[in-house]
TrEMBL record:
InterPro entries: Gal_mutarotase_sf_dom, GH38_C, Glyco_hydro/deAcase_b/a-brl, Glyco_hydro_38_C, Glyco_hydro_38_cen, Glyco_hydro_38_cen_sf, Glyco_hydro_38_N, Glyco_hydro_38_N_sf. It is an enzyme of class 3 (hydrolase). SMART domains: Alpha-mann_mid. It comes from the Eukaryota. Its cofactor is Zn(2+). GO terms for cellular component: lysosome. This is Alpha-mannosidase. The keyword Metal-binding applies. It comes from Drosophila virilis. Keywords: Disulfide bond, Glycoprotein, Glycosidase, Hydrolase, Metal-binding, Signal, Zinc. Binds 1 zinc ion per subunit. It catalyses: Hydrolysis of terminal, non-reducing alpha-D-mannose residues in alpha-D-mannosides. Its EC number is 3.2.1.-.
Amino acid sequence: MFDKIGVGLAILYIFSSVVHYVEPRNIRTVPKSDDGAKCGYSSCHPTKPNMLNVHLIAHTHDDVGWLKTVDQYYYGSETRIQKAGVQYIIDSVVESLLRDPEKRFIYVESAFFFKWWKEQTSEMQDQVRMLVNEGRLEFIGGAWSMNDEATTHYQSVIDQFAWGLKQLNDTFGECGRPRVGWQIDPFGHSREMASMFAQMGFDGMFFGRLDYQDKDERLMTQKAEMIWHGSANLGDKSDLFSGALYNNYQAPDGFCFDILCSDQPIIDGKHSPDNNVKERVNTFLDYVKIQSIYYRTNNIIITMGGDFTYQAAQVYYKNLDKLIRYANERQANGSNINLLYSTPSCYLKSLHDAGISWPTKSDDFFPYASDPHAYWTGYFTSRPTLKRYERDGNHFLQVCKQLSALAPKRSEEFDPHLTFLRETMGIMQHHDAVTGTEKEKVALDYAKRMSVALRACSTNIRNVLNQFSTGPVSEPTSQRPFEFKTCTLLNISSCATSESNSPFALTLYNPLAHTTKEYVRVPVADYKYIVLDPTGKSLTTQVVPVPKPVAAIKHRNSIAEYELVFLASNLPAMGYKTYYIQRDDSSPVNIKPTALPKRESSYTVIENENIKLTFDTNGFLSEVTADGMTRMISQEFLYYEGATGNNAEFLNRSSGAYIFRPKDNNIRFATDHVTIEVYKGSLVEEVHQKFNDWISQVVRVYKQSTYAEFEWLVGPIPIDDEIGKEVITRFKSDIKSEGVFFTDSNGREMIKRQRNHRDTWNVKLQETVAGNYYPITTKIALEDTIARMAILTDRAQGGSSLEDGALELMVHRRLLKDDAFGVGEALNETEFGEGLIARGKTHLFVGQSYLRADVSLKAIERLVQLETLLPSWKFFSNMESYTSDQWLSSFTNTYTGISLVLPKSVHLLTLEPWHDNELLVRFEHILEKDEDSRYSKYVQFNIKDVLSAFNIENIRETTLDGNAWLDEHRRMEFVPEPEDEAYEAYATISESANGGHLLSGAKPMLGVEYSKERLGPGELGAQSNRLKRSANAGHFKLHKRRQQHVDEDSINVSLKTDDRAKYLIELSPMEIRTFVVYLAK
Ligand SMILES: [Zn+2]
């Protein structure tokens, strides 16, 4: 059925001439069986046009780790923590589906599904294939996990969708391809996620959690379903139909028929004294009628399921069967309500077929609040070291993908190792993994998984780098001269090879598609070292002592007292350079670094040709000079005291893993005096600051750099006063930002924020700090007409601008109470028997906001953002068996996989092995359209020139996930309502629904008494700032469908037919293009 509609409506890509140079192997599709696959929109049960159709969605929400580890959830162990076993769920659902073709089920998390799938017999697999082909079992979402949207980076989100969808595609073909996004549990929703869904070809997305005030407003104005503009740069190809579910993702109160629930079954024994059919059906239909008031069409969606439901599927299904039967029997007596087994995509199709137009939205759904004192902004920072480790995992995954693809000779174990890391990173994106909202034991399990997966992939890398460095010799990797070890503790200046071996080799692998330079720091035991580059040239070096607070970390097991610094320049694109580093007592090059004499009475300055930082006599940063102006900019550490309470009512909410709630708005200073040491040399100038016993920092400025680096060390956060603390770094400037600041969305486009404001409703904030916090994946900034200040982070953090000119980032938190959203533990992380210590970096940019002579500051920030996300990876090898001459003459010490270096505005986002003799490649324009007059322009290049290391036979463009041909893919199109007609066209209702459901977090607030702080009309709840009209929900205005149109961005390449033109790629600002590249065998 969709084909008929789809062709009429879909965006028409004039694209077919791109293909068929040689016959490409198609992305696998399951051959149509004789009776024909009847999946997707054509498998939907029919609705009744004159009735209210109630789409019942049988579903289970299976967290890929939360209170239990991934495996504990899968196998169902640790039942005392939670009665949840995913293997039983899938077993049981499949059995029920096989028994009755009427039933439907959706499954979401590919990480769990494929674990189950691999354990099945081929007979069972065939039966499941049949269920999928008939649309009875439908995959929704389909990524490896249901990723968080606040703390995840877009690169990792795309990767984990691509991987999940690839398994579905390889296993089930077209019928396994999800059409609808299903983000029912993540704690707020990002605009970038909407954009990615759209670019992956999804027709729509449903979600569960939005601010309770926003939800109230949207329900009252029938705007819970909308067209979301996912990008300010990409036009309507980033538009996504998005719907907020009425009751998060739970069944209506009293209708959870699962064995996990205690609600009454439907008792229909004719003579049973317990017969409750009439009462139960009445209650359900009453609920249905209320819900339907808030939505526009004569269709509503009701989720019948919850966390780990359907372990005994027949129990749920049996009662659903009865509910449907007895409710629909009333149609004979005039009921106009029709219940049916459905799926989110069938519901979406009904919305589409209603032929009406829809409201639009351009901002995002952050921050999420579930009640007046529960702002889910704590998890933006929770578990800072796990958040950083996850980012390291992404970095290493990209290196591993590239090198596995570039390998001259591939080994058998390459694919399983790479897959292991891919899947582990997929799990890490889950909304209770990288978010830090899992139990401590589960967090440790995630970290352990990552550690094992990183080790697996490092064997691929060692193999490939040895092939490049030493030639294709046949002995096993372990006997090769280079170890290519990763030192995982470089962030506390610890590395066994560099400390203990001399000489040693340092190989820097640059995963970017352009040449880079970077300052390298290597932990060493002494200060007399020489560094040779691959031409044998001795480089300028500088030695800086390891900061005292770092050296003093108890569990640091290292003899390194210094860091050896040098500039690695011309690091080849997607390639490496190896340096030979040797201790040399005779060398006069390095002298023992000593701190500059203390001058209590005067200011301290560190500087280079671009930027100068001044510190006052108390040791605090006080001024920054850059771009020909001096601005007052201070930086300090402060902390909030976490609120504590019994969580029995809103006012008594504790700050916890999810929730950030400061006890009061009196922020505490870490200190009023900072002790400092200053080190200056030819490459870097540093101020080592010690704020107190548990906060210290190094502020540094490298030669030629346009920014300053702040490397902070926080912890163990003291709790002997029995007060939980949430630590922030705050940069205060004299920039007149007037309440406005900018935060990134998953590391991509910037979104404008205004203090105490939401774009689409009049917000009432009872939490003026927490309610102004936003997720910072990579960047926060503010500016006035003259000056601009931007900060890059090295991991996801919460951040805000609570005063004009000031930016703050929460770096670490340690709390003593649970916030009662289910995790059941205080966020009190410990390591080595003490509170957790975290270390990280922020980069500070200050300069002219608009009148910069050369490249704009925004463009520089973008480039640095990329280079700090994916710097070179450091590999260490003992070289004690080789003199420098032998090293120079025996090995290949530079390599590049790219012959045409890409323009700096282009990022080779992905290069990885895909199917046999295929690569998956993504190119990305990293600037927004108005960020820089030069760098924001369209760019054009030839793929063959870029990837000359490969013998390319053909390419074909795909959707963003790499699993569907772009030229063949069609999306449902929804019609936006004209802005000025928005309120004329629809009825709105003037009363809020009975408030309870609007206020509940889906993870239950234990024993909460809503009534104590229920919102009266016009108080905290929704208030439309527009005129409300009286109820008349029956009148919908129909808008004509839009005409077919050509996506203008897509034409340029396709109309040219010669071979060269085929490989010519053009990118507009923020555009990502994805290709399957076919290699000659
Ligand atoms: Zn969940």
